[in-house]
Amino acid sequence: MRRRSLLAALALLAAPPALARESGPAGPQNSVRVRQVMVPVVGNGQVERYVTYEVTLEIAVPARVPEIQGMTPRLQDTVTAVVYEAVDKGWITRGVISNGNALRARLEEACNDLLGKGTVARALITPATRPAM
Q: In this prediction, what percent of the chain has a pLDDT beyond 70?
């Protein structure tokens, strides 16, 4: 009998978080994920492999997220151009981000040029594939 009571109490304690997850999103989403960017790693004049990066933009005004999601093709072009610029400037070396601060600042600048000053609060860039060393 005590065992059933204990299990029932544990079930009640576990239920509220589960119900909260089913009720819907907690608040407005304030980020836009840009499609992954593939960057070739070139050595000895040949492509050795590709490294993939994910870019997420944190939007300062969450109400603009749907509008910005409609602009993802243009955002993709902008992000791709910045990532390849980073390779040229040495911020990404052999598939590894070596100057993340400069890359992030340039992404924010370019995306704000496209979307309007102050629209992108922060740009996040993470490797989707790990580069082999």
A: 76
| Residues 16-53: b if buried by 16+ CB within 10 A, e if exposed | eeeeeeeeeeeeeeeebebeebebebeeeeeeeeebeb
In this structure, the dihedral spanned by the alpha carbons of residues 65, 78, 110 and 84, taken in order and rounded to 10 degrees, is: 140
Q: Rounded mean pLDDT of 82-92?
A: 94
Strands (E), 1-133: 31-43, 46-59, 92-93, 96-97, 120-127
Least confident of 23-27, 46-50, 69-73, 84-88: 23-27
One-letter amino acid of 97:
I
| Residues making up the chain, counted from first to last | 133
Q: What is the pTM of this model?
A: 0.73
